[in-house]
Design a protein that fits this description.
With about 90 residues, this protein is mainly alpha-helical. It is built from 2 helices and no strands. It holds the Pfam family DUF3311.
Length: about 90
């Protein structure tokens, strides 16, 4: 295969520190929910609700915050990559 000037340029995926943080933000809620042994208890209760339930419900809010952070960081990373690394 020859490198012709009209051949489309294929860009490889880039791993940046920002993208690693994005990945961690997206994975954290899954890890928290899949690690069942960490929350299979009833104490401490919160306004009469056992820990097992309020822990899971609180992760709905925490996951939404992580998703918003991941989205904003992804936008920032895309902007900086398109501008050539300048902020």
């Amino acid at each position: 295969m020859s490198n012709t000037p009209d051949a489309p340029e294929v860009s490889r995926p880039v791993v940046t520190p920002v993208r690693i943080v994005v990945a961690l933000c997206l994975v954290a809620p899954f890890v928290a929910m899949l690690w069942v042994g960490s929350y299979t208890r009833t104490d401490p209760t919160f306004i009469g609700i056992p820990f097992f339930y309020w822990y899971q419900v609180s992760w709905v809010i925490i996951a939404a915050v992580f998703m918003a952070i991941a989205y904003k960081l992804w936008q920032y990373d895309e902007r900086t990559r398109k501008s050539g690394g300048r902020s």
